[in-house]
Design goal:
Layout: H1 3-24, H2 26-46, E1 54-60, H3 65-76, E2 80-85, H4 88-96, E3 102-106, H5 110-115, E4 123-126, H6 131-155, H7 178-199, H8 202-209, H9 211-216, H10 222-251, H11 260-285, H12 288-305, H13 318-323, H14 328-342, H15 346-370
Parallel strand pairs: 1-2, 1-3
Antiparallel strand pairs: 3-4
């Protein structure tokens, strides 16, 4: 039996051993296939960055045709649920007690000032505890007001003179649906969990169970041990990725405008990075508990917070923006959102893939350097 055949048999034996270990451990299967389903359902249906169904208190001091028409515009909007109050004091109390999210106040001189062609301002109060929600709500109120004013002047046979008329064109997500933004980014978080958290404990588990010593006395090379541990988890991670993509496209109707094969290649590249990070943690920690805690802090939390999955990187402080450049999930999230929503924008895809490729070589190089077939 030649040397190549012996190496191949040792490697296949190691892969088979690790595969059986995965099949005997229900937690690994759950993390790979059950956890993605739970996370996608939670974020797909339970988390939304859209301001819809905003509870809006409306106060009309002097009802007439104009005020009824304006309030009707808010009632017809999909973004608001108007609630009528008789006085501004009642509406302010409702805002303080969080019964409503904003107030639109039409004073008793609204129609008189409107007909005299002077300013006819409306009073607007918005709950500013959530600053992002407040800005969105304010913008929607201004939009309804401006559309009503345009229709009003048109009915009066007049022209509303606006210095600048905006004609917005929304690219890539014309429906402005936050689910289309969240679900692709969530795939990066899921693959980080599968890749980094599972492999962060594989070597540590061998040390704790005492089976690493048995591997040390066999002819198997340390490189074959590493590859044998990576291959089954790579297959497991890619299976979780395909499941996540299928749910995104067929359950949540997120468009996949780019190449499926480009998505697969980028996912495979990121999975190797995640596996390299997890294996490096496992080799250094040599304790499943420590490895699990470190993997959450070093891989999962940065992927969740600093990758652009939810929080826009450009709005972060400069120092934090600099730190995001060492977060692999940042580059994968950019690739996912591009492929799903924009299509094959190769400058974006290739530049971020190149960053992932460099990180893959760095982490796997560190694994090779730290992995030693010796007892410390």
């Amino acid at each position: 039996m030649n040397t190549f055949t012996k190496k191949r048999m040792r490697l296949m034996g190691m892969i088979r051993k690790e595969s059986l270990q995965i099949l005997r451990d229900p937690s690994s299967i759950a993390i790979a296939f059950v956890l993605p389903v739970i996370l996608l359902l939670l974020f797909g249906y339970g988390v939304s960055l859209d301001a819809k169904g905003v509870r809006l208190a409306t106060v009309v001091e002097q009802p007439d045709t104009n005020t009824t028409s304006l309030i009707g515009s808010f009632q017809q909007s999909e973004y608001f649920v108007p609630i009528v109050y008789n006085s501004i004091q009642e509406a302010e109390e409702a805002l303080r007690s969080l019964k409503v999210d904003g107030i639109v106040w039409l004073r008793n001189d609204f129609s008189n000032r409107l007909l005299s062609r002077n300013n006819a301002p409306i009073g607007v109060y918005v709950n500013g505890v959530d600053a992002n929600q407040a800005r969105i709500t304010e913008g929607y109120i201004q939009g309804v007001w401006q559309n009503w004013l345009l229709n009003y002047t048109h009915d009066q046979g007049q022209d509303l003179k606006i210095p600048v008329l905006l004609e917005p064109r929304i690219w890539f997500n014309a429906a402005v649906n936050s689910r289309y933004f969240l679900v692709p980014g969530l795939i990066a978080v899921i693959m980080t969990l599968i890749g980094a958290m599972l492999t962060s404990m594989v070597v540590a588990r061998e040390w704790e169970r005492g089976t690493m010593e048995a591997l040390m006395v066999t002819p198997i090379h340390i490189r074959e041990i590493v590859i044998g541990k990576l291959v089954p988890y790579f297959i497991l991670g890619m299976g979780g990725m395909f499941l996540s993509v299928a749910m995104a496209v067929w359950l949540f109707d997120v468009p996949l405008r780019g190449s499926f094969w480009a998505l697969t290649a980028a996912s495979a590249l990121f999975m190797m990075v995640a596996l390299g990070m997890g294996l490096l943690i496992s080799i250094v920690a040599k304790s499943q508990f420590v490895a699990g805690q470190v993997s959450i802090i070093v891989t999962f939390l940065p992927a969740f917070i600093l990758s652009g999955f939810i929080f826009q990187i450009s709005s972060m402080p400069d120092a934090i923006q600099f730190i995001t450049h060492v977060i692999p999930a940042r580059y994968f999230v950019a690739i996912l959102q591009t492929l799903f929503l924009a299509g094959n924008i190769w400058p974006v895809i290739l530049s971020n893939a190149a960053a992932l490729l460099i990180m893959m070589f760095i982490f796997l190089g560190l694994v090779k350097r730290k992995a030693r077939k010796q007892l410390d």
